[in-house]
Amino acid sequence: MEQQNTEFKRNFDLASFKRASSGMVSKNNEVYGDYDYLSWRSRSRTLKDYKPEEIDNIINSGSLSEQRELSRNYFLKDGLYRAIILYYANLLKCANLLIPKVSFGKKLSDKTTQKRYYKALDYLDEINPPILYNKIATRALTDGAYYGLISSLDKESFVLIDLPASYCQSRFRDIYGRDIIEFNVNYFDHFTDEDTRNQVLEIYPKEVISFYRRYQKGKTKTSWIKLSTDSTLYFSILEEGNPTFLNVIPATIQYDEAVDTERERDLEEIRKILIQKIPHLQDGALLFEPDEALEMHTGAVGMMKGNKNLSVLTTYADVDSIVSKTSSDAVSNNLEKMLQNVYAEAGVSGQLFAPTGSQALSTSILNDISFMMPITNKISKFISELLTQLFGNSNIKFTYKILPVSIYNQSDYLTDAFKLAQSGYSFFLPGAVMDLNQRELLSMKELENEVEKLQEKLVPLNSAYTQSGTSGDPGRPEMKTEEKAQTTIEQEASTDKQGGLNINE
Protein backbone atom coordinates (compact mmCIF):
# COMPACT_ATOMS: atom_id res chain seq x y z
CA MET A 1 0.00 0.00 0.00
CA GLU A 2 2.87 2.30 0.87
CA GLN A 3 4.46 1.59 -2.47
CA GLN A 4 1.23 2.40 -4.31
CA ASN A 5 0.94 5.72 -2.56
CA THR A 6 4.53 6.60 -3.38
CA GLU A 7 3.92 5.75 -7.04
CA PHE A 8 0.84 7.95 -7.14
CA LYS A 9 2.69 10.89 -5.68
CA ARG A 10 5.46 10.39 -8.19
CA ASN A 11 3.03 10.55 -11.12
CA PHE A 12 1.34 13.76 -9.92
CA ASP A 13 2.78 17.00 -11.20
CA LEU A 14 1.57 20.61 -11.57
CA ALA A 15 1.47 20.53 -15.36
CA SER A 16 -0.82 17.52 -15.31
CA PHE A 17 -3.13 19.19 -12.82
CA LYS A 18 -3.36 22.41 -14.88
CA ARG A 19 -4.12 20.41 -18.02
CA ALA A 20 -6.92 18.53 -16.34
CA SER A 21 -8.39 21.44 -14.41
CA SER A 22 -8.73 23.50 -17.60
CA GLY A 23 -11.44 21.08 -18.67
CA MET A 24 -13.22 21.07 -15.30
CA VAL A 25 -15.90 23.65 -16.11
CA SER A 26 -19.62 23.22 -16.26
CA LYS A 27 -20.68 22.22 -19.78
CA ASN A 28 -24.22 23.41 -19.17
CA ASN A 29 -23.37 26.62 -20.99
CA GLU A 30 -22.89 24.68 -24.21
CA VAL A 31 -26.60 23.89 -24.15
CA TYR A 32 -28.13 27.03 -22.65
CA GLY A 33 -25.71 29.74 -23.63
CA ASP A 34 -24.04 32.08 -21.21
CA TYR A 35 -25.84 33.47 -18.21
CA ASP A 36 -26.11 36.82 -19.86
CA TYR A 37 -29.65 35.79 -20.81
CA LEU A 38 -30.66 37.77 -17.73
CA SER A 39 -30.18 40.94 -19.76
CA TRP A 40 -32.23 39.73 -22.75
CA ARG A 41 -34.16 43.01 -22.73
CA SER A 42 -31.15 45.11 -23.58
CA ARG A 43 -29.96 42.72 -26.31
CA SER A 44 -33.32 42.38 -27.97
CA ARG A 45 -33.90 46.12 -28.31
CA THR A 46 -33.07 47.60 -31.65
CA LEU A 47 -33.44 51.15 -30.33
CA LYS A 48 -30.58 53.35 -29.20
CA ASP A 49 -28.93 52.67 -25.85
CA TYR A 50 -27.96 55.95 -24.23
CA LYS A 51 -25.24 56.30 -21.64
CA PRO A 52 -26.33 57.92 -18.35
CA GLU A 53 -24.19 60.98 -18.99
CA GLU A 54 -25.72 61.35 -22.48
CA ILE A 55 -29.22 61.32 -21.00
CA ASP A 56 -28.32 63.93 -18.39
CA ASN A 57 -26.74 66.20 -21.02
CA ILE A 58 -29.75 65.93 -23.35
CA ILE A 59 -32.24 66.61 -20.55
CA ASN A 60 -30.32 69.58 -19.17
CA SER A 61 -28.85 71.21 -22.28
CA GLY A 62 -29.78 69.17 -25.34
CA SER A 63 -31.53 70.55 -28.41
CA LEU A 64 -35.27 70.14 -28.85
CA SER A 65 -34.76 67.51 -31.57
CA GLU A 66 -32.40 65.52 -29.30
CA GLN A 67 -34.90 65.65 -26.45
CA ARG A 68 -37.71 64.45 -28.69
CA GLU A 69 -35.59 61.61 -30.04
CA LEU A 70 -34.72 60.57 -26.48
CA SER A 71 -38.37 60.63 -25.39
CA ARG A 72 -39.58 58.62 -28.40
CA ASN A 73 -36.79 56.13 -27.89
CA TYR A 74 -37.79 55.42 -24.30
CA PHE A 75 -41.51 55.48 -25.08
CA LEU A 76 -40.89 52.46 -27.31
CA LYS A 77 -38.18 51.00 -25.13
CA ASP A 78 -39.29 51.37 -21.53
CA GLY A 79 -42.62 49.97 -20.37
CA LEU A 80 -42.79 52.14 -17.26
CA TYR A 81 -42.16 55.39 -19.17
CA ARG A 82 -44.73 54.37 -21.79
CA ALA A 83 -47.31 53.45 -19.10
CA ILE A 84 -47.07 56.93 -17.55
CA ILE A 85 -47.55 58.69 -20.88
CA LEU A 86 -50.46 56.46 -21.89
CA TYR A 87 -52.08 56.98 -18.50
CA TYR A 88 -52.26 60.72 -19.10
CA ALA A 89 -53.19 60.36 -22.77
CA ASN A 90 -56.09 58.04 -21.93
CA LEU A 91 -57.07 59.70 -18.66
CA LEU A 92 -60.13 61.53 -20.01
CA LYS A 93 -62.97 59.52 -21.52
CA CYS A 94 -63.60 62.29 -24.04
CA ALA A 95 -67.20 62.63 -22.88
CA ASN A 96 -68.44 65.51 -24.98
CA LEU A 97 -71.31 67.86 -25.70
CA LEU A 98 -72.11 69.83 -28.86
CA ILE A 99 -73.88 73.04 -27.94
CA PRO A 100 -75.59 75.03 -30.72
CA LYS A 101 -75.56 78.80 -30.21
CA VAL A 102 -78.24 80.64 -32.16
CA SER A 103 -78.11 84.34 -32.84
CA PHE A 104 -80.34 86.78 -31.01
CA GLY A 105 -83.92 86.53 -32.20
CA LYS A 106 -83.36 83.16 -33.87
CA LYS A 107 -84.70 79.80 -32.67
CA LEU A 108 -83.18 76.36 -32.81
CA SER A 109 -86.61 75.00 -33.69
CA ASP A 110 -86.24 76.50 -37.14
CA LYS A 111 -85.95 73.55 -39.53
CA THR A 112 -83.03 75.01 -41.46
CA THR A 113 -81.10 75.65 -38.25
CA GLN A 114 -81.96 72.20 -36.90
CA LYS A 115 -80.66 70.64 -40.10
CA ARG A 116 -77.29 72.29 -39.61
CA TYR A 117 -77.19 71.08 -36.01
CA TYR A 118 -77.89 67.46 -36.96
CA LYS A 119 -75.33 67.57 -39.77
CA ALA A 120 -72.76 68.80 -37.27
CA LEU A 121 -73.63 65.88 -34.97
CA ASP A 122 -73.18 63.42 -37.84
CA TYR A 123 -69.85 64.99 -38.76
CA LEU A 124 -68.62 64.45 -35.23
CA ASP A 125 -69.07 60.72 -35.75
CA GLU A 126 -66.85 60.95 -38.83
CA ILE A 127 -64.15 62.81 -36.95
CA ASN A 128 -64.31 60.33 -34.03
CA PRO A 129 -63.12 62.78 -31.33
CA PRO A 130 -61.98 60.10 -28.79
CA ILE A 131 -59.56 58.58 -31.31
CA LEU A 132 -58.39 62.00 -32.46
CA TYR A 133 -57.91 63.16 -28.88
CA ASN A 134 -55.90 60.08 -27.87
CA LYS A 135 -53.58 60.42 -30.88
CA ILE A 136 -52.95 64.10 -30.28
CA ALA A 137 -52.45 63.69 -26.52
CA THR A 138 -50.04 60.74 -26.90
CA ARG A 139 -47.87 62.57 -29.43
CA ALA A 140 -47.95 65.82 -27.48
CA LEU A 141 -46.86 64.07 -24.28
CA THR A 142 -44.11 62.09 -26.02
CA ASP A 143 -42.75 64.71 -28.42
CA GLY A 144 -43.75 67.77 -26.47
CA ALA A 145 -46.09 68.93 -29.23
CA TYR A 146 -48.44 67.62 -31.90
CA TYR A 147 -48.15 68.91 -35.46
CA GLY A 148 -50.93 68.20 -37.92
CA LEU A 149 -51.79 69.24 -41.46
CA ILE A 150 -55.32 69.11 -42.90
CA SER A 151 -54.95 67.84 -46.46
CA SER A 152 -58.67 67.57 -47.21
CA LEU A 153 -61.64 69.25 -45.58
CA ASP A 154 -65.27 69.41 -46.65
CA LYS A 155 -68.71 68.59 -45.25
CA GLU A 156 -68.23 64.92 -46.03
CA SER A 157 -64.65 64.17 -45.00
CA PHE A 158 -61.78 65.26 -42.79
CA VAL A 159 -58.24 64.07 -43.67
CA LEU A 160 -55.51 64.92 -41.18
CA ILE A 161 -51.79 64.23 -41.73
CA ASP A 162 -49.64 63.68 -38.64
CA LEU A 163 -46.49 65.66 -39.34
CA PRO A 164 -43.19 64.27 -37.97
CA ALA A 165 -42.23 66.38 -34.97
CA SER A 166 -38.52 66.04 -35.81
CA TYR A 167 -39.12 68.05 -38.98
CA CYS A 168 -41.42 70.68 -37.50
CA GLN A 169 -41.06 73.81 -35.42
CA SER A 170 -43.33 76.60 -34.23
CA ARG A 171 -41.63 79.92 -33.49
CA PHE A 172 -44.23 82.50 -34.47
CA ARG A 173 -47.94 83.32 -34.27
CA ASP A 174 -50.18 85.06 -36.78
CA ILE A 175 -52.17 88.22 -36.05
CA TYR A 176 -54.98 86.09 -34.59
CA GLY A 177 -52.63 84.41 -32.09
CA ARG A 178 -52.57 81.09 -33.94
CA ASP A 179 -49.32 79.11 -33.94
CA ILE A 180 -47.49 79.01 -37.27
CA ILE A 181 -45.99 75.62 -38.18
CA GLU A 182 -42.77 75.44 -40.18
CA PHE A 183 -42.19 72.11 -41.96
CA ASN A 184 -38.81 70.89 -43.20
CA VAL A 185 -39.39 69.28 -46.62
CA ASN A 186 -36.02 67.54 -46.26
CA TYR A 187 -38.23 64.90 -44.62
CA PHE A 188 -39.12 63.53 -48.06
CA ASP A 189 -35.45 62.90 -48.91
CA HIS A 190 -35.40 60.08 -46.38
CA PHE A 191 -37.57 58.04 -48.73
CA THR A 192 -34.77 56.79 -50.97
CA ASP A 193 -37.11 54.89 -53.25
CA GLU A 194 -38.58 57.40 -55.69
CA ASP A 195 -41.89 55.56 -56.10
CA THR A 196 -42.40 55.46 -52.34
CA ARG A 197 -41.48 59.14 -52.06
CA ASN A 198 -44.01 60.09 -54.73
CA GLN A 199 -46.72 58.06 -53.00
CA VAL A 200 -46.04 59.92 -49.74
CA LEU A 201 -46.06 63.28 -51.52
CA GLU A 202 -49.47 62.58 -53.06
CA ILE A 203 -51.27 62.93 -49.70
CA TYR A 204 -49.79 66.39 -49.09
CA PRO A 205 -51.31 69.67 -50.29
CA LYS A 206 -50.15 71.08 -53.63
CA GLU A 207 -48.25 73.98 -52.03
CA VAL A 208 -46.06 71.51 -50.09
CA ILE A 209 -45.37 69.39 -53.19
CA SER A 210 -44.54 72.49 -55.25
CA PHE A 211 -42.19 73.81 -52.57
CA TYR A 212 -40.39 70.47 -52.34
CA ARG A 213 -39.90 70.27 -56.12
CA ARG A 214 -38.36 73.74 -56.11
CA TYR A 215 -36.19 72.70 -53.16
CA GLN A 216 -34.95 69.68 -55.13
CA LYS A 217 -33.92 71.95 -57.99
CA GLY A 218 -32.13 74.36 -55.67
CA LYS A 219 -34.59 77.18 -56.30
CA THR A 220 -35.24 77.86 -52.60
CA LYS A 221 -32.80 79.20 -50.03
CA THR A 222 -34.23 77.06 -47.24
CA SER A 223 -35.90 73.68 -46.83
CA TRP A 224 -38.45 75.09 -44.35
CA ILE A 225 -41.93 76.02 -45.53
CA LYS A 226 -44.37 78.05 -43.46
CA LEU A 227 -47.76 76.33 -43.52
CA SER A 228 -51.03 78.21 -43.45
CA THR A 229 -52.66 78.40 -40.02
CA ASP A 230 -56.00 77.70 -41.70
CA SER A 231 -54.90 74.12 -42.42
CA THR A 232 -52.61 73.24 -39.51
CA LEU A 233 -52.96 71.98 -35.95
CA TYR A 234 -50.47 72.64 -33.18
CA PHE A 235 -51.00 71.40 -29.63
CA SER A 236 -48.46 71.37 -26.83
CA ILE A 237 -48.52 70.50 -23.15
CA LEU A 238 -45.73 72.88 -22.19
CA GLU A 239 -45.34 76.30 -23.76
CA GLU A 240 -41.79 75.51 -24.92
CA GLY A 241 -42.88 72.32 -26.68
CA ASN A 242 -40.44 70.11 -24.77
CA PRO A 243 -41.30 66.46 -24.01
CA THR A 244 -43.39 66.51 -20.87
CA PHE A 245 -41.90 63.69 -18.80
CA LEU A 246 -38.28 63.80 -19.91
CA ASN A 247 -37.06 64.06 -16.31
CA VAL A 248 -38.70 60.72 -15.54
CA ILE A 249 -36.36 58.74 -17.82
CA PRO A 250 -33.33 58.52 -15.43
CA ALA A 251 -35.59 57.28 -12.63
CA THR A 252 -37.15 54.60 -14.87
CA ILE A 253 -33.69 53.43 -15.96
CA GLN A 254 -32.53 53.13 -12.35
CA TYR A 255 -35.64 51.16 -11.48
CA ASP A 256 -35.26 48.80 -14.46
CA GLU A 257 -31.61 48.18 -13.58
CA ALA A 258 -32.55 47.47 -9.98
CA VAL A 259 -35.22 45.00 -11.10
CA ASP A 260 -32.71 43.22 -13.35
CA THR A 261 -30.19 43.08 -10.50
CA GLU A 262 -32.81 41.65 -8.17
CA ARG A 263 -33.77 39.07 -10.80
CA GLU A 264 -30.12 38.03 -11.12
CA ARG A 265 -29.83 37.75 -7.34
CA ASP A 266 -32.91 35.55 -7.14
CA LEU A 267 -31.62 33.27 -9.88
CA GLU A 268 -28.21 33.01 -8.26
CA GLU A 269 -29.87 31.95 -5.02
CA ILE A 270 -31.70 29.09 -6.71
CA ARG A 271 -28.60 27.90 -8.57
CA LYS A 272 -26.98 24.82 -7.07
CA ILE A 273 -23.44 23.51 -7.33
CA LEU A 274 -22.86 19.74 -7.30
CA ILE A 275 -19.49 19.13 -5.63
CA GLN A 276 -17.52 15.99 -6.40
CA LYS A 277 -14.74 15.74 -3.87
CA ILE A 278 -11.93 13.40 -4.93
CA PRO A 279 -11.12 11.29 -1.89
CA HIS A 280 -7.71 11.01 -0.28
CA LEU A 281 -6.05 8.03 1.31
CA GLN A 282 -5.49 8.06 5.04
CA ASP A 283 -1.99 9.51 4.69
CA GLY A 284 -3.26 12.29 2.43
CA ALA A 285 -2.25 10.79 -0.86
CA LEU A 286 -4.60 11.35 -3.82
CA LEU A 287 -6.67 8.37 -4.87
CA PHE A 288 -7.19 9.48 -8.52
CA GLU A 289 -4.90 11.26 -10.90
CA PRO A 290 -6.04 14.62 -12.36
CA ASP A 291 -6.82 13.10 -15.77
CA GLU A 292 -9.02 10.51 -14.09
CA ALA A 293 -10.75 13.23 -12.09
CA LEU A 294 -11.40 15.08 -15.35
CA GLU A 295 -13.17 12.06 -16.77
CA MET A 296 -15.33 11.82 -13.66
CA HIS A 297 -16.15 15.52 -13.94
CA THR A 298 -17.06 15.26 -17.62
CA GLY A 299 -19.33 12.32 -16.90
CA ALA A 300 -21.17 14.16 -14.12
CA VAL A 301 -21.60 17.24 -16.32
CA GLY A 302 -23.04 15.10 -19.08
CA MET A 303 -25.60 13.66 -16.68
CA MET A 304 -26.65 17.07 -15.33
CA LYS A 305 -26.53 19.24 -18.46
CA GLY A 306 -30.31 19.29 -18.70
CA ASN A 307 -30.55 21.44 -15.58
CA LYS A 308 -29.60 25.07 -16.30
CA ASN A 309 -29.53 25.95 -12.60
CA LEU A 310 -27.02 23.24 -11.67
CA SER A 311 -23.25 23.44 -12.03
CA VAL A 312 -20.65 20.78 -11.33
CA LEU A 313 -17.45 21.28 -9.36
CA THR A 314 -14.83 18.55 -9.06
CA THR A 315 -12.10 19.29 -6.53
CA TYR A 316 -9.48 17.76 -4.30
CA ALA A 317 -9.88 20.47 -1.69
CA ASP A 318 -12.44 21.11 0.99
CA VAL A 319 -14.96 23.61 -0.32
CA ASP A 320 -17.21 25.95 1.60
CA SER A 321 -19.56 28.63 0.36
CA ILE A 322 -19.93 32.17 1.58
CA VAL A 323 -23.34 33.57 0.72
CA SER A 324 -24.00 37.27 0.89
CA LYS A 325 -27.78 37.36 0.83
CA THR A 326 -29.53 40.67 1.11
CA SER A 327 -32.67 40.68 3.13
CA SER A 328 -35.62 40.24 0.78
CA ASP A 329 -37.58 42.82 2.75
CA ALA A 330 -34.78 45.36 2.39
CA VAL A 331 -34.49 44.73 -1.35
CA SER A 332 -38.23 45.00 -1.77
CA ASN A 333 -38.28 48.28 0.14
CA ASN A 334 -35.49 49.70 -2.03
CA LEU A 335 -37.32 48.74 -5.22
CA GLU A 336 -40.53 50.28 -3.90
CA LYS A 337 -38.70 53.52 -3.09
CA MET A 338 -37.20 53.65 -6.57
CA LEU A 339 -40.59 52.98 -8.15
CA GLN A 340 -42.23 55.72 -6.10
CA ASN A 341 -39.42 58.02 -7.21
CA VAL A 342 -40.43 57.37 -10.82
CA TYR A 343 -44.03 58.31 -10.10
CA ALA A 344 -42.90 61.36 -8.13
CA GLU A 345 -40.87 62.58 -11.11
CA ALA A 346 -43.93 62.08 -13.33
CA GLY A 347 -46.19 63.87 -10.85
CA VAL A 348 -48.55 60.90 -10.70
CA SER A 349 -49.69 58.79 -7.74
CA GLY A 350 -48.13 55.34 -7.58
CA GLN A 351 -51.44 54.00 -6.27
CA LEU A 352 -52.80 54.26 -9.81
CA PHE A 353 -50.71 51.22 -10.69
CA ALA A 354 -51.36 49.40 -7.41
CA PRO A 355 -54.33 47.28 -6.35
CA THR A 356 -55.19 49.55 -3.40
CA GLY A 357 -56.43 53.10 -3.21
CA SER A 358 -57.14 55.92 -0.80
CA GLN A 359 -58.44 59.45 -0.54
CA ALA A 360 -55.02 60.75 -1.54
CA LEU A 361 -55.40 58.86 -4.81
CA SER A 362 -58.65 60.68 -5.62
CA THR A 363 -56.97 64.02 -5.05
CA SER A 364 -54.04 63.00 -7.23
CA ILE A 365 -56.38 62.01 -10.08
CA LEU A 366 -58.16 65.35 -9.92
CA ASN A 367 -54.76 67.05 -10.22
CA ASP A 368 -53.92 64.86 -13.20
CA ILE A 369 -57.20 65.79 -14.90
CA SER A 370 -56.44 69.46 -14.28
CA PHE A 371 -53.01 68.94 -15.82
CA MET A 372 -54.57 67.63 -19.05
CA MET A 373 -57.37 70.19 -19.31
CA PRO A 374 -55.35 72.98 -21.05
CA ILE A 375 -54.60 70.84 -24.11
CA THR A 376 -58.10 69.36 -23.86
CA ASN A 377 -59.61 72.83 -24.07
CA LYS A 378 -57.42 73.63 -27.08
CA ILE A 379 -58.72 70.55 -28.90
CA SER A 380 -62.29 71.49 -27.95
CA LYS A 381 -61.74 74.97 -29.38
CA PHE A 382 -60.37 73.54 -32.64
CA ILE A 383 -63.37 71.24 -33.13
CA SER A 384 -65.75 74.11 -32.27
CA GLU A 385 -64.19 76.30 -34.95
CA LEU A 386 -64.14 73.43 -37.45
CA LEU A 387 -67.86 72.68 -37.04
CA THR A 388 -68.76 76.36 -37.16
CA GLN A 389 -66.74 76.78 -40.34
CA LEU A 390 -68.47 73.85 -42.05
CA PHE A 391 -72.05 74.03 -40.74
CA GLY A 392 -72.45 77.41 -39.10
CA ASN A 393 -73.81 80.62 -40.55
CA SER A 394 -75.01 83.99 -39.31
CA ASN A 395 -77.83 82.26 -37.43
CA ILE A 396 -75.96 79.46 -35.65
CA LYS A 397 -72.49 78.66 -34.31
CA PHE A 398 -71.23 75.66 -32.35
CA THR A 399 -69.37 75.08 -29.12
CA TYR A 400 -67.82 71.67 -28.57
CA LYS A 401 -66.88 70.70 -25.01
CA ILE A 402 -64.84 67.78 -23.69
CA LEU A 403 -65.89 67.22 -20.10
CA PRO A 404 -63.35 66.60 -17.29
CA VAL A 405 -64.54 63.00 -16.88
CA SER A 406 -62.31 59.96 -16.45
CA ILE A 407 -62.98 56.37 -15.49
CA TYR A 408 -61.85 57.31 -12.00
CA ASN A 409 -64.36 60.10 -11.36
CA GLN A 410 -67.15 58.99 -13.71
CA SER A 411 -69.41 57.79 -10.92
CA ASP A 412 -69.15 61.03 -8.93
CA TYR A 413 -69.59 63.15 -12.04
CA LEU A 414 -72.64 61.12 -13.05
CA THR A 415 -74.21 61.62 -9.62
CA ASP A 416 -73.79 65.38 -9.94
CA ALA A 417 -75.14 65.31 -13.50
CA PHE A 418 -78.30 63.50 -12.35
CA LYS A 419 -78.81 66.04 -9.58
CA LEU A 420 -78.62 68.83 -12.15
CA ALA A 421 -81.08 67.01 -14.42
CA GLN A 422 -83.51 66.61 -11.51
CA SER A 423 -83.25 70.36 -10.97
CA GLY A 424 -84.17 71.08 -14.56
CA TYR A 425 -80.69 71.25 -16.10
CA SER A 426 -79.40 69.28 -19.08
CA PHE A 427 -80.52 65.69 -19.77
CA PHE A 428 -77.70 65.42 -22.29
CA LEU A 429 -75.09 65.77 -19.56
CA PRO A 430 -75.76 62.40 -17.84
CA GLY A 431 -75.89 60.76 -21.26
CA ALA A 432 -72.49 62.19 -22.21
CA VAL A 433 -70.98 60.92 -18.96
CA MET A 434 -72.41 57.46 -19.81
CA ASP A 435 -70.65 57.52 -23.21
CA LEU A 436 -73.83 58.30 -25.16
CA ASN A 437 -73.50 61.12 -27.66
CA GLN A 438 -76.43 63.40 -28.34
CA ARG A 439 -77.50 61.64 -31.52
CA GLU A 440 -77.45 58.26 -29.77
CA LEU A 441 -79.43 59.56 -26.80
CA LEU A 442 -82.09 61.14 -29.02
CA SER A 443 -82.43 57.99 -31.12
CA MET A 444 -82.61 55.76 -28.06
CA LYS A 445 -85.35 57.82 -26.39
CA GLU A 446 -87.36 57.99 -29.63
CA LEU A 447 -87.08 54.23 -29.98
CA GLU A 448 -88.16 53.63 -26.37
CA ASN A 449 -90.99 56.17 -26.15
CA GLU A 450 -92.47 56.46 -29.64
CA VAL A 451 -91.69 53.12 -31.27
CA GLU A 452 -91.55 50.55 -28.50
CA LYS A 453 -93.59 52.64 -25.98
CA LEU A 454 -91.62 51.21 -23.09
CA GLN A 455 -93.00 53.81 -20.68
CA GLU A 456 -96.36 52.07 -21.00
CA LYS A 457 -95.03 48.54 -20.82
CA LEU A 458 -92.48 48.96 -18.04
CA VAL A 459 -94.32 50.38 -15.01
CA PRO A 460 -92.15 51.06 -11.94
CA LEU A 461 -93.02 49.24 -8.73
CA ASN A 462 -94.58 51.27 -5.91
CA SER A 463 -91.96 52.77 -3.64
CA ALA A 464 -91.35 55.82 -1.53
CA TYR A 465 -90.56 57.63 -4.77
CA THR A 466 -93.74 56.62 -6.65
CA GLN A 467 -96.21 56.92 -3.76
CA SER A 468 -97.42 60.32 -2.58
CA GLY A 469 -97.04 60.95 1.12
CA THR A 470 -98.87 63.39 3.35
CA SER A 471 -96.00 65.79 3.26
CA GLY A 472 -95.04 65.12 -0.36
CA ASP A 473 -91.47 64.36 0.79
CA PRO A 474 -90.28 60.85 -0.12
CA GLY A 475 -87.76 60.99 2.67
CA ARG A 476 -84.13 60.08 2.75
CA PRO A 477 -82.96 57.82 -0.12
CA GLU A 478 -82.29 54.21 0.76
CA MET A 479 -78.65 53.58 1.59
CA LYS A 480 -76.63 50.84 -0.06
CA THR A 481 -76.00 47.77 2.06
CA GLU A 482 -72.25 48.46 2.21
CA GLU A 483 -73.01 51.98 3.52
CA LYS A 484 -75.19 50.77 6.43
CA ALA A 485 -73.95 50.08 9.93
CA GLN A 486 -74.03 46.47 11.10
CA THR A 487 -76.65 47.31 13.76
CA THR A 488 -78.91 48.79 11.09
CA ILE A 489 -78.62 45.68 8.93
CA GLU A 490 -79.48 43.44 11.90
CA GLN A 491 -82.44 45.64 12.85
CA GLU A 492 -83.85 45.56 9.33
CA ALA A 493 -83.49 41.79 9.24
CA SER A 494 -85.38 41.51 12.51
CA THR A 495 -88.12 43.75 11.16
CA ASP A 496 -88.53 41.56 8.09
CA LYS A 497 -88.95 38.49 10.29
CA GLN A 498 -91.72 40.27 12.23
CA GLY A 499 -93.69 40.92 9.07
CA GLY A 500 -92.48 44.48 8.69
CA LEU A 501 -93.28 45.56 12.29
CA ASN A 502 -90.43 47.12 14.22
CA ILE A 503 -90.94 45.71 17.71
CA ASN A 504 -88.52 48.24 19.17
CA GLU A 505 -90.91 51.12 18.42
Topology of helices and strands:
Blueprint: H1 2-11, H2 14-21, H3 29-32, H4 40-44, H5 52-61, H6 64-77, H7 79-89, E1 96-102, H8 111-127, H9 129-143, E2 145-153, E3 158-162, E4 168-173, E5 179-184, H10 194-202, H11 206-216, E6 224-226, E7 232-236, H12 249-270, E8 272-277, H13 290-304, E9 310-315, H14 328-346, H15 359-391, E10 396-402, H16 410-422, H17 428-433, H18 438-451, H19 454-457, H20 486-497
Parallel strand pairs: 8-9
Antiparallel strand pairs: 1-10, 2-3, 2-7, 4-5, 5-6
Helix pairs in contact: 2-13, 6-7, 7-9, 12-14
Structure write-up:
The protein has 505 residues and is mainly alpha-helical. The chain has a domain at 2-40 and 257-330. It has 20 helices and 10 strands. The protein has helices at residues 2-11, 14-21, 29-32, 40-44, 52-61, 64-77, 79-89, 111-127, 129-143, 194-202, 206-216, 249-270, 290-304, 328-346, 359-391, 410-422, 428-433, 438-451, 454-457, 486-497, and strands at 96-102, 145-153, 158-162, 168-173, 179-184, 224-226, 232-236, 272-277, 310-315, 396-402. The strands form 4 sheets. A 3-stranded antiparallel β-sheet has the order 3-2-7. Helix 13 links the parallel strand 8 and strand 9 (310-315). Helix 2 runs parallel beside helix 13 and helix 6 (64-77) packs across helix 7. It is flat. The relative contact order is 0.12. The model is unreliable at 1-12, 25-45, 321-327, 469-474 and 497-505 (pLDDT under 50).
